[in-house]
Amino acid sequence: VQLQASGGGLVQAGGSLRLSCAASGSIVGFNVMGWYRQAPGKQRELVATITSGDTINYADSVKGRFTISRDNAKNTVGLQMNSLKSEDTAVHYCSIFYGTNYWGKGTLVTVSS
């Protein structure tokens, strides 16, 4: 399984960005797609996950601001990020758990205050 993410960039505080990620390879059955992020000097942390049955989990820090969604037919996952804050600045990683964890290359989100 390979993951290709896109959509990072520079945005002012209060602005919005949308991240997208496509998984390639044979994916059949239960899986969990999601987004994680790693800020400079910090550990990688959960942002949001969504199962193939559309069960969603958000980090408390993004609830009410971010929305995760997926298209099971296309094996894609998106993250709509609104009301961005400077503390959202991080490299964001797409992931899929399908028997094991797979990771995409990160995409940098920079929020200027």
Key phrases:
113 residues, mainly beta, globular, seven-stranded mixed beta sheet, four-stranded antiparallel beta sheet
Description:
The chain is an all-beta fold and 113 residues long. 0% of the residues lie in helices and 56% in strands. Strands 2, 4, 5, 6, 9, 10 and 11 form a 7-stranded mixed β-sheet that branches. Strands 1-3-8-7 form a 4-stranded antiparallel β-sheet, with no helix packed on it. β9 and β10 (101-103) form a beta hairpin. The radius of gyration is 13 Å and the shape is globular. The model has no long low-confidence stretch (mean pLDDT 96).
Put the structure in a nutshell.
This protein is mostly beta strands and 113 residues long.
Topology:
Elements (H helix, E strand, L loop, with lengths): L1 E5 L2 E4 L4 E8 L7 E7 L6 E7 L4 E3 L7 E6 L4 E6 L8 E8 L3 E3 L3 E6 L1
Parallel strand pairs: 2-11
Antiparallel strand pairs: 1-3, 3-8, 4-5, 4-9, 5-6, 7-8, 9-10, 9-11
| Shape, per Cα inertia axes | globular
Number of discrete helical segments = 0
How would you state the average pLDDT, rounded?
A: 96
Output the structural class.
Answer: mainly beta
Number of strands: 11
Percent in helix: under 10%
